[in-house]
Design goal:
Shape: globular
Number of strands: 11
Order of helices and strands: HHEHHEEEEEEHEEEE
Structural class: alpha+beta
Low-confidence stretches: 1-12
Radius of gyration: 17 Å
Mean pLDDT: 80
């Protein structure tokens, strides 16, 4: 791309990170309401701005699950590759080199984009909630993103979209992490 030309994908990426951070913040703020119940709890988040489609049903949904995509620099092997360090992840973090599930009080997120012609939905399934639920079965026509398999033994992690309880062909993706 020539210097000085407008790149809409770069602009969207600059806007998505703060929204992903706000999503994780909202999940944290609901901890007391969601914690301590023996049944599954799904937090519904809604948006109705121009950016909502990208965040609620677009690629940013993957970042809310897996964390912000960034370049990981392997100094020992002198290479760099795209991956994640789980920054802004709703349900994952690294602790002492191990990948652990956090915010287990929420079984998942239901992302709702409201607009003039109706609404779009997507789900994010927690990999290891205190009270498990299969979101793609509870909300059969809603695409749900999840990790497969859990627990993740080593990098990369694999994310997969599901609908009606079955994987959506062509949507599986591996994401390396340091």
């Amino acid at each position: 791309m020539a210097h000085g030309r407008y790149d809409p994908t770069k602009k969207i990426a600059q806007l998505v990170v703060p929204v992903c951070d706000a999503t994780v913040g909202r999940l944290k703020s609901k901890a007391e309401q969601l914690r301590g119940h023996p049944c599954p709890r799904v937090l519904a988040l809604t948006g109705s701005t121009a950016l909502s489609h990208v965040v609620m049903v677009g690629d940013a949904t993957e970042e809310i699950l897996a964390g912000e995509q960034e370049m990981i620099h392997d100094q020992a092997n002198r290479i760099a590759y795209p991956g994640t360090r789980f920054r802004y992840s709703a349900f994952l973090q690294q602790t002492g080199g191990a990948l652990v599930a956090v915010r287990r009080y929420a079984s998942g997120l239901l992302m709702c984009n409201l607009h003039g012609r109706g609404m779009e939905l997507s789900g994010i399934r927690h990999p290891d909630p205190a009270a498990p639920v299969d979101l793609s079965t509870v909300f059969p026509n809603v695409p749900v993103i999840e990790l497969a398999p859990w627990p993740v033994a080593r990098s990369p992690l694999t994310i997969q979209w599901r609908r009606n309880g079955s994987p959506v062909p062509g949507t599986g993706r591996s994401i390396p992490y340091a």
